[in-house]
Design goal:
The protein is built from 2 helices and 5 strands, in the order H-E-E-E-E-E-H. The protein is of the alpha+beta class. The relative contact order is 0.18. The model is unreliable at 78-85 (pLDDT under 50).
Length: 85
C-alpha cells in the first residue's frame, strides 16, 4: 500500500512544482470498520478519503476487494498490496 501512496506523492509533487507550489505528503492510515479523524468518524461505507484537517489519507483495504466482487470493477491496486485489515 505504501508503494501506491508513494507513486501518487511523486505525481502530485511534480504537478505542484510545475505550478510553483509545494505539495505536502499525506500520511496513510489503514482501518477496518471505522476510525476517528480530525474530520469526524471515517466509516467503512465511505471508501477511501482524505482529511485536510489532519493531512491523512484513510483507506480500508477491503474496499478494493468489494469493488471487484460486487461491481466487477477493475482492481486499481495489484492483488496482495491490500491484503490487510
Amino acid at each position: 500500500m505504501s508503494r501506491v501512496l508513494k507513486s501518487t506523492e511523486d505525481v502530485w509533487t511534480t504537478a505542484f512544482r510545475e505550478m510553483g507550489r509545494q505539495y505536502r505528503e499525506p500520511k496513510l492510515v489503514l482501518f477496518r470498520d471505522a476510525t476517528r479523524t480530525q474530520c469526524g468518524v471515517g466509516q467503512a461505507a465511505m471508501g477511501p478519503f482524505y482529511c485536510p484537517a489532519d493531512e491523512r489519507v484513510y483507506l480500508r483495504p477491503r474496499f478494493f476487494d468489494e469493488l471487484a466482487s460486487r461491481f466487477h470493477a477493475h482492481r486499481p491496486v495489484p492483488a496482495g498490496l491490500c491484503d490487510r485489515p
